[in-house]
Amino acid sequence: MNRWAKAHPTGVVENRMNPLLAAIGLPYVPDWGQLRAFAPELWLIAAIVAVLLTPFFVKKANAACGLVALAGLLAALVSLFVVWDGRSGEHFRGLLVIDSVAVFWKGLLLLFVIGIVLMWFGTTAVRMHEGDGPEFFTLLLGATLGMSLMASTSNVLMLIIAVEMASLPSYVLAGFRKTHRVGAEASLKYVLFGAATSSIMAYGLSMLYGLYGTLQIDGTGGLAQQIAAGGGSALLWVAMLALIVGLGFKISAVPFHFWCPDVFEGASMEVSAFLSVASNGAGLVLLMRVMLSIASAQAFDSSTLLTGLAVVIGVIGAITATVGTTAAFVQHNIKRLLAWSSIAHAGYMLCIVSLLVRGPATAAGFDPASTAVQVVLFYLAAYLFMNLGAFTVAGLIERETGSEQIADYAGMGRRSPLIAFCMTACLLSLVGLPPFAGFVAKVNLFWALMQNGTWWWWLVGVIGVNTVLSLYYYVRVIKVMYLKDSPAPPLWPHPLGAGVAVVCAVILIVMLIAFGPINRLAQNHSHFNGVQIQSTAESIAGEIARR
């Protein structure tokens, strides 16, 4: 076996390099066995090329590029589950890893971006200047590609590349409305914050390479193992905090959140919706991978490093949730309100991520790290449809009225009962009330934190108080729609946009009713590096049975 070969956990040899190529020094050329696990990314690249070529063949390129992007996203989603052979392991000399958590996130991401494209057709397409479509969909697909790779990186260099691949197109998307002054200012703020946090993260990761002499995060001789063997140091703490800074920017965690409300207000509705879920989710999945690699290499020992990381992430999550909730109270623009709402939900998920470095199991059979991954994946699945539905309704109203102000939603229950109901369903789900999926997501989160006990009870209290307080600003929108009358005529939304909103509302109800099967689906696709993640539903059922 040549020196580039690596053994797959199942015994299948991967990353084979032709001995002849190795002998004459030619570059490594991956075969189909390596590429098939990343078929979705290949389809996204093909879709980008197709979008760029589309204007040469059609006159009105905007709609055509949208259809080409939609076809590429559908092909990527199908290939994710059809072409991938189900095996986990490292690829491309360890630069990327494929496992069930990565597959689960990519499925959610592709499904969400398909919804974003459909939302664009129903809300913004009519106002976009003809000829801007190729640029817009190239940037959207490029950012999607970067966020997909963020879930599969197991190498420090690839981590930086993936984050920048996701960030750079997002900067341009934020200011894509070229004649919109607020959007241009927001995009500039986004770039400046992104450049600062990315440079801090790159500097911190360079310290890790200087300390341990490897770029691999996981595996034999990787950073995780060497950190476990060498113990903590001041430079290690600086490096880890720098990594949290870089990923905290993507997640919109406090104090790296200042770009979020302004960018959401200045960007178009579909771009705001895209960043609210895709950016947060990609950052969370990448943070989970890094934290779990470090914790598992130390056998989840209660070391100073692991305990400190848990405290730092938990405190950041609690502060983020509180700041997001309190700032939303004074918002009168629907996009700014949803921006602060996104920050609050990012804080909730960060609180549960703090359990990743705790474990592996308690005396009662509760596995904090395993349950944390399960809870975050289900929360992201529910959050996807909450935000997509809410932003779609906001986009439909903006298209018909030209306003983003909550006051202009007056009488919407009479003027357009269907989209008023869809907005109500999404907002109540964001609160965490039944009969919507947000209720199950919040219950899972509370249960996991309570099971871990000790200081995590403080996080339970913080999230509980913020959830109750958030009811005010979500219900305020519902109150305006149903209890404030308006002389404005009935509103007839675009059928496609209304269809997207209705589908989101229905799915939120179905995810509560069919929680068991959906959670089992998440369980079957919840593996980090081949380790099965325990189902939260089964954990709850087992705890109830024991009592």
Mean pLDDT: 83
Strand content: under 5%
Q: What is the gyration radius calculated from CA atoms?
A: 23 Å
Q: What's the arrangement of strands in the largest beta sheet?
A: 1-2
Uncertain spans: 1-17, 530-547
Number of self-contained structural domains: 1
Give a count of the beta strands, DSSP E runs of length 2 or more: 6
Biggest sheet record: 2 strands, antiparallel
Helix content: over 70%
Number of helical segments with 4 or more residues: 22
Global morphology: globular
Please write the string of helix (H) and strand (E) elements.
EEHHHHEEHHHHHHHHHHHHHHHHHEEH
What is the structural class? mainly alpha
State the separation between the terminal residues, measured CA to CA. Answer: 54 Å
